[in-house]
Amino acid sequence: MHREVRIQTENFVPDAEYQALRRRSAGSAGAIATFVGLVRGVSGDADAGGLQALHLEHYPGMTERSIEAIVDRAAERWPLLDVVVVHRVGALAPAAQIVYVQVASAHRAAAFAACEFIMDYLKTDAVLWKREDARGASRWIEATGDDRDRINAWDDAAR
What residues contact 63, with CB distance under 8 A and at least 6 apart? Predict the structure, then answer.
């Protein structure tokens, strides 16, 4: 299985990632599922108003290892051929691309499920710190109750 995890400040080009996977898979993939996450223009703090920037910090090496562990867990559950995760760090403006997840498998069910699984775990288990700046106020963001419920559902399904 090809596995690629990149943490970067620069933007990514989804079509370029897709075309690279198509070249690598040489016809073995029957399905490719992708997810592109964007920075919302609304702060999570309703009183703060519109979001001015989202700042993402990471710990080089540790962040990549935490995401690789998530990919490994997905590969244990589904027959995956190729996984690419690109996560941006630094200051990102509203509407900027923040995360890209691409999963290939022989069949669509595995590709869809693994892509969703990886994204759900990125929200809770990836070693990344997020801070919102909205109208002069800053606040650190943590995983929500909904994020944790989604993880619990995956864990329950595995039992």
Answer: 7, 87, 126, 127, 128
Q: Alpha-carbon distance 79 to 75, whole Å?
A: 6
Residue from 89, 69, 71 nearest 129 by CA: 89
Which uninterrupted H or E stretch holds 147? helix 145-158
State pLDDT tens for residues 46-66.
Answer: 454 588 899 999 999 999 999
How are strands ordered across the β-sheet holding 80-88?
Answer: 2-8, 80-88, 97-105, 31-38
How far are the Cα atoms of 43, 89, 139, 140, 151 from residue 136, in angstroms, in the given order?
Answer: 12, 21, 10, 14, 33
2: left (phi over 0), alpha (psi -120 to 50) or beta: beta
Reported pTM: 0.93
Distance CA 89, CA 20 (A): 23
Interval 10-33 mean pLDDT: 95
Structure tokens at 147: 């994020």
Residue positions counted in the chain: 159
Q: What angle do CA 15, 73, 109 make, to 5 degrees?
A: 55
